[in-house]
From TrEMBL, chains A, B:
Record protein name field: Alanine--glyoxylate aminotransferase family protein
Any one Pfam family match given in the protein's UniProt record, by short name: Aminotran_5
Highest taxon, organism lineage: Bacteria
Organism encoding this protein: Dissulfurirhabdus thermomarina
Coiled coil: none
GO molecular function: alanine-glyoxylate transaminase activity; L-serine-pyruvate transaminase activity
Cofactor: pyridoxal 5'-phosphate
Keywords tagged on the record: Aminotransferase, Pyridoxal phosphate, Transferase
Family to which the UniProt record says this protein belongs: Belongs to the class-V pyridoxal-phosphate-dependent aminotransferase family.
Residues where substrate binds: R333
Length: 381, 381
């Protein structure tokens, strides 16, 4: 039996006690027992999202939550500003196209963070924009977009909402839904929460509810209004993914116990230690404004990033992620989300060193690991 | 620790080995290992659906599969014939309304099966109908609709498809997708497959694909075309519910091993034995054409069916289901789906006897159980 490591930025490794919790006998979703769990989840999500808004839970992957946002907030023919700086920014644009929403794209080079001034200019040119769609963290490039600054731009506009895909950001680093004026925030189960994929969670502000009441888009399964009504009855509109919600209750209880600051510090620590190793190897990061969710490393000259990923998976039993679309082959990505600790980061660095060595890139075996170890030990130079 | 029994028609009891299988470490969805699992699932679903069509797997509850069918097959302004004889028939009509599809409702009294002649008349009156939407088994009433006969009506119409919600029918009794001309068949994970909720599966015929290519409805997450394209690359369009698909592979392997006839015989046996007990108690079934998925019992005069359900749940640790909407209080429902056997049916009958006794309905304790036991033993009078 080969030991396997999952260090991709979603799906992530799930803690064994959470796996076993979800393996308990299924309970019926229309029961006082399940309603009590849902109430716990509801409170836990408000804490996680740093919001007083209700957070809806959908049985879908994160993309379902993104689609729900477009369909509930924008009517056909509406205009929306889309920050497009990676695969998931492109997904916002594709969703707008699918729903007949005119996307004003603010294009950002992959690896760069959006300049709020560019979004401000788009909003000046299109005051009729119903929404601004953005990623808090663009998983495909490892970039953090400045959503707090965007909140300041959008807040004074009574008819425009800010919609943040925080699928790989929420729970990783500080995202203040209410304080920053983030009208809609979307996350998924398979990132910082460390659950299997299959749940999307969406917080909705009062400003966003007003649009949801007005949108003429066809929707049913992803209709915010149905879910809010159901939540009032301590249930869900449709059969929920019961086992994942049981897992969610467990994970959220732990989040409240350790507290958000500790959670953020954990991700920061894994990211910084890993990056000390990356630097020691003479490698560079791909993103300009890197997030704590994932370390995205530029493949060195002459090395195909996909080959690094393949070697790790096939030879060493370690799953990291490569690049997607235009970044394919140019980068590889090591997750800091999920059931991982600093020892795992040493493993990842050792595997990367070995793969680069094997592929003919000059590397001193152990150098990155040593640097990371020193960083984690608080003994970095 | 109280022992608990789940005997509602979805979510259902999941076998412990399947729960533990799904508790194994999560694997990445873009990997050869997951692709191989998906290929097994693909073959297993074709066997289960009795089809050569591709079966798409969506991360959603069954309603997501129903919505996908409406959105992919009907354009706004299209006409569709809807068989409406229970809560899920009403859901088809609601979906049509949400998508601007004109529903010609064939209303059927709750508890009755649709008369194919009524559907034929609706099709005569509306030859432009793009689809006929129907349940194979209407879970809210326990009725089987004659989908084979409807297949004969729809097959000769080149521009009309038959869409069957078989969420609580597929795997329970014989549903021949290809032989009967069922263009789209929808099922869910939390019924006969005995998995937790969170997956919808949809088979799509060539005739239906032609409509899907043509539909102008907005759709993205539920876009059949995206999923078919992904399937060709041995993957899914969006992050799949990995743990549920691992469970699905396990369950489908077992279905192929025992064979569909044995699976159908199992459900029939549980249903018939239970009904021998029901008759012995002087109780009657609610549906005219009962399915093998669930036994739906009419609450006796003066007894509130909801009280029966509540007593079982709160006092005896046994979850069955009550009636919904207009059937609320009038019926209670015992599932034959999920990880249940004939001994469980004796438990359910004993609990029903005790609850009726407790609620003041004259009942001879043990009479229903004895009759069911005799039936199961092959010793029925």
């Amino acid at each position: 039996m080969r030991k396997r490591y999952l260090m991709a930025p979603g799906p992530v490794a799930v803690a064994p006690d959470v796996l076993l919790k979800m393996a308990e006998p299924i309970i019926h979703h229309r029961s006082p027992q399940f309603s009590a769990i849902l109430e716990e989840v509801r409170g836990g999500l408000k804490y996680l999202f740093q919001t007083r808004n209700d957070v809806l839970v959908l049985a879908s992957s994160g993309t379902g939550g993104m689609e729900a946002s477009v369909a509930n907030l924008c009517a056909p023919g509406d205009t929306a500003v889309v920050v497009r700086g990676g695969k998931f920014g492109e997904r916002w644009a594709e969703l707008c196209e699918a729903y007949g929403v005119r996307a004003v794209n603010v294009d950002v080079a992959w690896g760069r963070a959006v300049d709020p001034a560019d979004v401000a200019a788009a909003l000046e040119a299109h005051p009729e924009a119903r929404a601004v769609f953005v990623q808090a963290h663009e998983t495909s490039t490892g970039v953090k977009h400045p959503v707090e600054a965007l909140g300041e731009l959008v807040r004074p506009r009574p008819e425009t909402v800010l919609v943040v895909d925080a699928i790989s950001a929420l729970g990783v680093y500080d995202i203040r839904t209410d304080d920053w004026g983030l009208d809609v925030v979307v996350t998924g189960s398979q990132k910082s929460l460390g659950l299997p994929p299959g749940l999307a969670m969406v917080s909705v502000s009062e400003k966003a509810w007003a649009l949801a009441e007005r949108s003429t888009q066809p929707r049913y399964y992803f209709d915010f209004r149905r879910e809010r009504k159901a939540l009032g009855r301590r249930t869900t509109a449709f059969t929920p993914a019961v086992s994942l919600i049981i897992g969610l209750e467990r994970v959220l209880a732990r989040v409240r116990e350790v507290g958000l600051p500790a959670l953020f510090a954990h991700h920061r620590r894994l990211a910084e230690g890993t990056r000390a190793g990356v630097r020691a190897l003479g490698l560079s990061l791909f993103p300009e404004a890197p997030s704590e969710a994932v370390t995205v490393i530029r493949a060195p000259e002459g090395i195909d990033g996909q080959e690094v990923v393949k070697l790790l998976r096939e030879e060493y039993g370690i799953t990291i992620a490569g690049g997607q679309a235009q970044a394919k082959g140019k980068i590889f990505r090591i997750s800091h989300m999920g059931h991982l600790d600093e020892w795992d980061m040493l493993v990842a660095l050792a595997a990367v060193e070995r793969a680069l060595h094997r592929l003919g890139h000059p590397v001193e075996l152990g150098r990155g690991v040593a640097a990371a170890e020193a960083w984690f030990a608080g003994a970095a130079a």
